[in-house]
């Protein structure tokens, strides 16, 4: 019997072999486009955040300047007519509070006003100020010294600014970017101690003025706010200037700003001339 030979079988593979291949041109272009879109989105977000920060920073600076300006002007108006009890009152014929309507050489026919007051000294030496009364430069005023301060809106280096002039000295810039300032004076016309009317300078007897209403418009330092609204500012409201038409004797009471992509805001306050109050 012949021995059977073993049957040998070789297994060469379990399936067809596929060729390996890389990215094609279309896939590469799609990847590049997606990458560019991501970069563009990130850049846009960065620009939006940067603009938002710049807007908030500008607005914060404007708010802070307005707050400090309000304090400065309120302090000056309250000091009008001040004199120490031990000082001879020598204001003479000059009013302790005076104003001029629409005389500023800045924008918007802004008003100016002048205050006069004496200082305060230490008990030991009348020539040494105790710094409880200061001028607009922050310098203490001695008891026997009279200060004359004039506040106005003037162009300083092309920027409308609140300035202060002490006596005959040159005016100095206190706050930049103040475009319009208007005042109404509260007058006691019958001597009963109560204010009967509010009128601009030139229409009141300054000797009878007991209070002041002051309004000003401040703008942001930069002009990169494309969404800023070009608002008309009616300083004393529709009752004083109906339909944003200023009275004939107070043209600056309605302020129309330039369309220059700056944010603006109006600030107003009233203050009593305390040395005139009963």
What this model shows, in words?
The chain is of the alpha+beta class. It has one domain (50-272). Helix content is 20%, strand content 26%. The mean pLDDT is 85. The chain crosses the membrane at residues 28-48. It comes from Oxalicibacterium flavum. This is Pilus assembly protein PilW. InterPro entries: PilW.
Briefly summarize what is shown:
Keywords: Membrane, Transmembrane, Transmembrane helix. By secondary structure, the protein is an alpha+beta fold. 20% of the residues lie in helices and 26% in strands.
Strand content: 25-35%
Q: Output the helix-strand order.
A: HEEEEEEEEEEE
Q: Over all CA atoms, what is the radius of gyration?
A: 36 Å
How many angstroms separate the termini?
A: 148 Å
SS class: alpha+beta
Average pLDDT works out at 85
Overall geometric form? elongated
Task: Offer a few descriptive terms.
278 residues; 4-stranded antiparallel β-sheet; 20% helix; alpha+beta
């Amino acid at each position: 019997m012949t021995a059977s030979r073993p049957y040998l079988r070789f297994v060469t593979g379990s399936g067809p072999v596929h060729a390996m291949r890389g990215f094609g041109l279309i896939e590469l272009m799609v990847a590049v486009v997606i990458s560019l879109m991501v970069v563009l989105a990130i850049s846009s977000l960065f620009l939006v955040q940067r603009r938002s920060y710049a807007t908030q920073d500008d607005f914060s600076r404007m708010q802070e300047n307005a707050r400090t300006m309000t304090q400065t002007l309120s302090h000056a108006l309250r000091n009008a007519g001040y004199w120490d009890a031990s000082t001879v009152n020598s204001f003479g014929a000059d009013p302790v509070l005076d104003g001029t309507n629409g005389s500023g050489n800045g924008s918007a026919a802004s008003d100016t006003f002048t205050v006069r007051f004496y200082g305060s000294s230490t008990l030991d030496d009348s020539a040494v100020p105790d710094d409880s009364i200061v001028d607009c430069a922050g310098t203490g005023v001695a008891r026997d010294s009279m200060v004359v301060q004039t506040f106005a809106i003037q162009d300083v280096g092309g920027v409308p600014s609140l300035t202060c002039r002490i006596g005959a000295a040159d005016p100095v810039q206190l706050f930049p970017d103040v475009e319009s300032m208007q005042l109404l004076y509260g007058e006691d016309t019958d001597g009963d101690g109560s204010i009967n009317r509010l009128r601009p300078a030139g229409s009141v007897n300054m000797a009878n003025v007991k209070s002041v209403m002051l309004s000003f418009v401040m703008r942001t330092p930069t002009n990169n706010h494309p969404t800023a609204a070009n608002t008309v500012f009616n300083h004393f409201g529709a009752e004083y200037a109906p339909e944003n038409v200023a009275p004939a004797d107070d043209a600056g009471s309605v302020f129309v700003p330039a369309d220059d992509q700056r944010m603006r805001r109006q600030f107003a306050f009233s203050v009593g001339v305390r040395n005139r109050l009963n």
